Amino acid sequence: MLSTWIGLGLALVSALAVNWAYTREHDAAVGLPQLSPRQPIRTIRLLVRDRGWMVGFATESAGWLVYVVALRLAPLALVQAVSASGIAVLALIAARGRPRRLEIHERLAVLAGLAGLALLSVSFLGSHPSDRTAGAVGAALWLAACAGGSVALTGVRLRVSRAAALGLAAGLLFAGGDISVKLVVHGGWWLLALLPLFAFYALGTMRLQVAFQHGGALAAAGMATLATNAVPIAAGFVLFGEALPTGARGVLQLAGFGAIVVGAIALSKRARPEGDSSR
User: What pTM did the predictor assign?
Assistant: First the structure.
């Protein structure tokens, strides 16, 4: 039980680091020439030559390493639920540290996220969360769905801002990477999941930088964070067989998950459509 609490604490630290890093990467990306995943070498060169972007990416990488440790200590769904609270950091930075600059629905969204964390904490009292190793076929299907969904979102025009659509595409890739991390920490032949892990994170990072050039950090990274957390939460229950506690604890945990996801959705709605062209 102690290891679960430590893992969730590390998940919160990771969320703070990663979402702060997103704001630095956004500020750097908007000042660069047009980026495109179709020109990966050129895109990588432009990014690594920018000092501000490298600071953000280094912080994001450090946050990711903390996240890996968190997954070793706690179930995937719980870690992702806590990580979803990091979107509140994006909202506060977008408001320059002044919550009153946020719209009413955004303030309520932050409160919903905090309430969700509190409900999750209460639901853990006296419980013993557990999970199991995934099946190979099921894991392959989940990873393929993440990749396919990202490709579809990149090529299809939706009735949302381009930054939000591309951010969602990046989030699905990050979700595939997060699921791969959970597979890797089981060890053994699951270490083969290192291959999709690196591919998902590399492609997701490039896609997110393109999204940053189409809109604000909250528009792009907000949707990315939503997908990055919502999809692995579902995978935690379906793929890894993570069990909810019974009775009142189960109700509290479901309410906590719901409050965090609703808060993330509400914050991401701050984005407004831009008339950018597809890249």
Answer: 0.80
With a CB cutoff of 8 Å and minimum separation 6, the contacts of 123 are 245, 249, 250, 252, 253, 256
Question: ∠ CA(201), CA(202), CA(205), 5° rounding?
Answer: 80
End-to-end CA distance of the chain: 47
HSE-up of 53 (CA within 13 Å, CB side)?
Answer: 19
Four-residue CA torsion sign, 219, 228, 79, 257? positive
By C-alpha distance, which of 214, 211, 178, 220 is closest to 90?
A: 220
Three-class DSSP category at 35: coil
279 residues of the chain, pLDDT tens digit each: 678 889 889 998 998 899 899 989 999 999 999 998 888 899 999 999 999 999 999 999 999 999 999 988 888 777 887 887 777 777 777 666 666 667 777 677 777 777 876 777 677 655 555 557 788 999 999 999 999 999 998 877 766 678 888 998 999 999 999 999 989 988 889 999 999 999 999 999 999 999 999 887 877 887 888 788 778 878 887 888 777 677 787 888 788 878 877 776 675 565 444 444 444
CB atoms within 10 A of CB 125: 10
Whether the CB-CB separation of 251 and 120 falls below 8 Å is answered with no
The token pair that represents 200 in the structure block: 């998902």
Amino acid at 268: S
CB 11 within 8 A of CB 79: yes
Task: Give the span between the Cα atoms of 256 and 243, in whole angstroms.
Answer: 15
How far apart CA 99 and CA 130 sit, in angstroms, is 37
Tokens of 49: 């030559």
Helices (H), the chain: 2-29, 40-48, 51-73, 76-83, 87-94, 104-124, 136-155, 162-184, 194-212, 217-238, 247-268
